[in-house]
Amino acid sequence: MFIVLSKASADTIFWNESTKQANHSVVTEFIFIGLSDSQELQIFLFALFFVFYVGIVFGNLLIVITVTADSHRHSPMFFLLANLSFIDLSLSSVTAPKMIADFFNKHKVISVKGCLAQIFLLHFFGGSELVTLIAMGFDRYIAICKPLRYSTIMRGNVCIGIVVAAWGVGFLHSVSQLAFAVNLPFCGPNKVDSFYCDLPRVIKLACTDTYRLDIMVVANSGILTVCSFVLLIISYTVILMTIQRRPSDRSYKALSTLTAHITVVLFFFGPCIFIYAWPFPTKSLDKFLAVFYSVVTPLLNPIIYTLRNTEMKTAMRRLRQWNLNFSVKS
C-alpha cells in the first residue's frame, strides 16, 4: 500500500511539474502593438523614420570618420564625441530597423530570445552613453575651470580608460537588468504595447508578481539616471558660473560648446527619467518618449554638435577638401 501511494504521489508531482513547465513555456514570441493601426499613417511613419535613420547613420558616421581622419581633432573632447556618435548609431540600430520594417508587417513579432537581446543591447549602449556624457561633462569642467591642468589630467591614457569604463559600466548595467527578466515565466498575454522590448513593459507580461521587479528596475535604471542627471546639472552650473566670472572671447566659445553639451544631456536624460523613474506612466507619452529616445535624439546629437561647434565644421570642410583633392589626383 505504501509503495502504491508513493508511486501515485510521484506521478502526481511529475504531472504538476510538467504542467507548470508547459504553462511557463507557452509564450515563445511577443507581438508589438506598434505606433498606429492606420495603414496611411504607417506609410507616412515609415517614410519619416526611414529618412531619420539614414540621417542617424550618415551623421554619426561622419563625426566618427572626421575625428578619426583629422589629426587636429584628436583632443579628448573629440575623442569622446566620436565614441558618443558610435554609441548613438548602435543604440538606434537596436530598435529603428525593426520598427521601420514592421510598418509593412501585419503581425509585428519578435521571439522571446530576440526580445531579451533587445533589452540587453538597449541597456548596454544606454549605460555606455550615460557614462560617456558624464565624462564629456567632466572634460568641459577641467577645460574651463582648471585649464592649466587640462593636458595633465585629460591625457591619452585617461581618455582610453574612460571609454573602456563606459563600455564596462554599460555591460554590467545591462547584465544586471537582464538578470531580472531572463528567468521570468511567460504564459500569456504576449502583446507589448510598444515597438520594441524594454524591461518595464516586458515584466508586466510575466505570470508572477512583479512588484519587487518594478522596484528593482526603478532602483537600477531610474535612480542611476536621475543621480547622473543631477550630477551633470550641478557640474554645468559650476562651469556656467566660472564662465560668467571670466568674460572673454574664449569664454564665449566655451559657452557655445557647453550649450551643445547641455542640450544633448537634456535630450538623453529627459526621456530616460520619464521612462524609468516617473511614478505616473502614461502609455501615449511613453511611446512618444520611446520614439524620441531611439530615433530623434541620435539624429539631433550630430546636428547639434556640428552646428554649434566651429572646430567640427572646420574639420568637416577639411575632410571634404581632402576628398576632392584625392578624387582629382585619382
Feature tags:
single chain; mainly alpha; Rhopdopsin 7-helix transmembrane proteins; three-stranded mixed sheet
List the SSEs and their pairings.
Elements: H1 2-24, E1 29-32, H2 39-69, H3 76-102, E2 108-111, H4 112-145, H5 150-153, H6 156-181, E3 191-192, H7 199-202, H8 211-245, H9 249-276, H10 283-308, H11 310-329
Helix pairs in contact: 2-3, 2-10, 2-11, 3-4, 3-10, 4-6, 4-8, 4-9, 6-8, 8-9, 9-10, 10-11
Supply the CATH class. Mainly Alpha
Q: Do you know the CATH topology?
A: Rhopdopsin 7-helix transmembrane proteins
- N→C terminal distance: 94 Å
Total tally of structural domains: 1
Total strands: the figure is 3
Radius of gyration: 24 Å
Q: Which class best fits the helix and strand makeup?
A: mainly alpha
Tell me what the CATH architecture is: Up-down Bundle
What can be said about the biggest beta sheet?
3 strands, mixed
Mean pLDDT, to the nearest integer, reads: 80
Helix content range: over 70%
Q: For this structure, what is the CATH homologous superfamily?
A: Rhodopsin 7-helix transmembrane proteins
Which stretches are low in confidence, meaning pLDDT under 50 for 5 or more residues running? 1-24
Shape descriptor reads globular
N-to-C series of helices and strands: HEHHEHHHEHHHHH
Strand content: under 5%
Total of helices? 11
Strand order of the largest sheet: 2-1-3
